[in-house]
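Hi there, hope your week has been kind to you so far. Do you reckon you could talk me through the fold, stretch by stretch? Thanks so much in advance, here it is.
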Amino acid sequence: KLFFTDYGNAAKVERCDMDGMNRTWIVDSKIEQPTALALDLINKYVYWLDIYLESVEVVDYQGRRRQTITKGRQIRHLCGLAVFENYLYTVNSDSLSILRIHRYNGSDVQALARLENAKEIRVFQKRTQAAVRSHACESDPSGMPGGCSHICLLSSSHKARTCRCRTGFILGTDSRSCK
């Protein structure tokens, strides 16, 4: 799945398959300007910053069990969001510091370090990296990913795929080759 935010005409948090199909709004009310998103891959939660409402909130992958983690003026200057163990990590663009926020009580906010010009933060940890398994976009005997002549995108599962073409090309009737 692909998770993303949008705050154009109607602010929302959405999810879709990797090929863009099955697009679903998971948060579309009481949301104004969601600017950063983080996933808890193990427990299947989506966290986001809303800089207009000055809040950090969370829902499960289906948009249920919504909770506010923390709220207040300090959220206005946050950018980037990552989750690791019991904490959320973010960057305060005003003080140029990395902040750690306890994701269950929200009141334990601690500045960890100062960085200049940081706008994003990511945590890489072996447990959260998916094990590599066979998938529909693996190269076929002729070296084409998933049998697609240009681009292979995973679809509703690791066993399904959609072929797409680069700009200026159209997908042929075989749904694999681009012309």
About this structure: The domain at 2-123 is CATH 2.120.10.30 (Neuraminidase). The chain has a mean pLDDT of 90. DSSP finds no helices and 13 strands in the chain.
